[in-house]
Amino acid sequence: MSNLLVTGIGVVAPTGVGVEEHWASLVRGEPAIRPVEGFDAARYGISLAGQVRDFVPADHVSPQLMVQTDRWTWMSLAAATLAAEDAGYTAPEDAYATSVFLASGSGGNEFSQHEIQGLWAKGPRSVGAYQSIAWFYAASTGQVSIRDGFKGPSGVVVTEGAGGLDSIGWARRVVRRGTPAVLVGGTEAGLCPYAMLCQATSGRLSTAQRPEDAYKPFDRRANGHVVGEGGAILLLEEPGAARARGVRRVWGEVAGYAATHDAHHHEDPAPDAVQYARAIRLSLADAGVTPDEVDLVLADGAGVPELDRLELDAIAAVFGDRATPVPVTAPSSWTGRLMAGGSALAVATALLAMRDGIVPGTAHLDDPVEAPGVDLVTSSRVQDLSTVVVLARGTGGFNSSLVLRRPEGATA
Amino acid sequence: MQDRRRVVVTGIGVVAPGSMGREGFWDMITAGRTATRRITFFDPTRFRSQVAAEVDFDGRKLGLSAQEVHRNDRFVQMAMVAADEAVADSGLRFGVGGADDAPDPDRVGVTLGSAVGATMRLEQEYVSVSDAGRLWEVDPRYASRYLMHALVPSCGATELAVRFGAHGPATVVSTGCTSGIDSIGYGAQLVEDGDADVVLAGASDAPISPISMACFDTIRATTDSNDDPEHASKPFDARRNGFVMGEGAAVLVLEELEHARARGAEVYCEVTGYASRCNAFHMTGLKPDGLEMAEAITVALGQGRIHPDEVGYVNAHGSGTKQNDRHETAAVKRSLGPAAGRVAMSSIKSMVGHSLGAIGSIEVAATALAVSRGVLPPTANYEVPDPECDLDYVPKVAREQKVDVAISVGSGFGGFQSAIVLASPTRRES
């Protein structure tokens, strides 16, 4: 199979709504992690979050759909439209020619908390007609498919933080079986009291009060992560079909992908990074790329010391023999971790970095940990990029790796 | 097509209402016995629909440790028990270092379907942290240590991967009520595409809790036949009035054909095709033409180069809602053509209820057993024909009938329509 092309990107993220807004904010290093607004997160020991402040749902979602869906779905609906617009993609005559294959982590949290509160405070009759379609993990995929008339094989995968990459992996199987275009990626919205409490029980959230002290992947003072919301949706197209419709721009090619599982413990990662490294190696082999050819790695960047160390071990195991250490950055440090939306957003960021030849640095990486064989990117730099690896992990041991290549003939 | 990797089913595990394990399940559905009853998990008095197909499930008595029960929602526990049975059935010796028949752990994947994940655990915990809905800003002092494990249902795939040391690709598939067909379809794709040799593929859901019952109450999707729970689920019958909520799990061991042959494994059936389409119409509504489900069936048959005439059995979605049964009947007629008039089609939801995402895998398990054993489970409670549903629904009594090819179909909220095709290993390819 020839490599799928990324032909459209839609971003709804703490860094901005719109792919260029996100990128400009990232390159300028504008802080998107700020004190939590909307509820008292301090009860859960949390002060900061990556909230999407510029998002006006009514600008993107019809009033009818707004009342039927959760904020998570509003963001998916918006990002799907932005991606299609960016690609100049209109629904083809064959409705089966477009699929929607998104990742979800936690479903329609805020909507559901309202409905379940009604149920327990007032009784079953207070539960509204839309709870059954707003909460479940397939809601965003279904609503995008219905709104846009896409009837192709569609699906929803849940692998926590790795979901955005895995949706691309599954989309490749869909394309292999004959569907030429797939919307992939996903969004997440877990910033309401109950979902925040659930996430806080992971013990992996930073309780720091100042952004510069909070989410610091690969820093000696790393102490957990900050939760963010939003994500990205991308349009992938089979090259022949993309050319046939006269695609106006190609962001990049999906050259390789692989996923493994630690299968070690329900929460803790394996004490070695063998399976994580294996995912990276498999994805490189799938792409036909050697470690020497990789210009940049976008790391998962958990921000938890042990997880950071394991990630650097995995990267070093694959790339450690290079003459020049591989550059590694974790742009999620600017937005917080958006669960399934985060790995989708990382793909968008990687494609933007390739386009402009700019590597965004890792936020607040003041005192990097020892990382032999790895070049940790502490501040933005200019660098020609033709092959970029994006990594993501999901709680419980999911490891995924994606290889992106700059489209042929393009230079930054 | 010589080098196409083929996928076979070599193990089946089932946790279903009204029975114990795979054989209990098979005995029950072929006896035409129903497991629907008045809800016992909570007092359903204030609910419109007060019946469900509950599993009398105790993880501790079924091989789970106290800690596994403590940290996991019921949907994960049921998936673990079903997976244990499927793996034992397959004869694959996971985790036995050096055993000849131990699969390469790097080549074992997990695809677990679930429509609503840990919704029961999330609701139970919500009741304490919110003080039964009094607090919007819930009280962390009452929080369980394992709420993150409940929030994100991928924990189910993790638990199975850890349990069997499966280092291949793992995922939870959550496409509403087609999750259980899709998870097996995705598992088959992992094998076909060469990313795994063995996949634990299945689904689990445990939705018999107040919030799930309430949300289907308000849209009147569930039955209100509360005075006669045993006969409440009546797919294709003119008197049908909504589905009966169920719960349960099924896990299949999918294996690459040569891998299974090399170890002399017994094969239930081959997965020759799987396809899914969306109706892009309505989150809960179905058009009566069945167009997209028909497309899924046609594509899935085509993958295995199977002619509609070869199909002997259709395991129906058969939820027992007016619109579903009509939609599905139309889809089968549209895709099978004249062969639809000869095909046997039944809904086991008449007996085990509708366990949302899980039922797809439970139905694929039933279909695999039907192909393997030459017995078709009936549609229980079917008495009064509906002129709009005029196929052979195998009323009430199981039928001894050898089928070479069977299809299982599903339809779900969000517009998902899925079909999977199973063929007998003794089928002569035409």
Automatic annotation (TrEMBL), chain A:
It comes from Geodermatophilus saharensis. GO terms for biological process: fatty acid biosynthetic process. Residues 1-406 form the Ketosynthase family 3 (KS3) domain. PROSITE patterns: KS3_2 (PS52004). This is Minimal PKS chain-length factor (CLF/KS beta). Keywords: Acyltransferase, Transferase. One of its GO terms (molecular function) is 3-oxoacyl-[acyl-carrier-protein] synthase activity. InterPro entries: Beta-ketoacyl_synthase (IPR000794), Ketoacyl_synth_C (IPR014031), Ketoacyl_synth_N (IPR014030), PKS_Beta-ketoAc_synthase_dom (IPR020841), Thiolase-like (IPR016039). The keyword Transferase applies. Pfam families: ketoacyl-synt, Ketoacyl-synt_C. Belongs to the thiolase-like superfamily. Beta-ketoacyl-ACP synthases family. SMART domains: PKS_KS (SM00825).
From TrEMBL, chain B:
Keywords: Acyltransferase, Transferase. InterPro entries: Beta-ketoacyl_synthase (IPR000794), Ketoacyl_synth_AS (IPR018201), Ketoacyl_synth_C (IPR014031), Ketoacyl_synth_N (IPR014030), PKS_Beta-ketoAc_synthase_dom (IPR020841), Thiolase-like (IPR016039). PANTHER family: 3-OXOACYL-[ACYL-CARRIER-PROTEIN] SYNTHASE, MITOCHONDRIAL, POLYKETIDE SYNTHASE-RELATED. GO terms for molecular function: 3-oxoacyl-[acyl-carrier-protein] synthase activity. The lineage of its organism: Bacteria, Bacillati, Actinomycetota, Actinomycetes, Geodermatophilales. GO terms for biological process: fatty acid elongation. It holds the Pfam family ketoacyl-synt. This is Minimal PKS ketosynthase (KS/KS alpha). GO terms for cellular component: cytosol. CDD domains: KAS_I_II. Belongs to the thiolase-like superfamily. Beta-ketoacyl-ACP synthases family. Residues 4-424 form the Ketosynthase family 3 (KS3) domain.
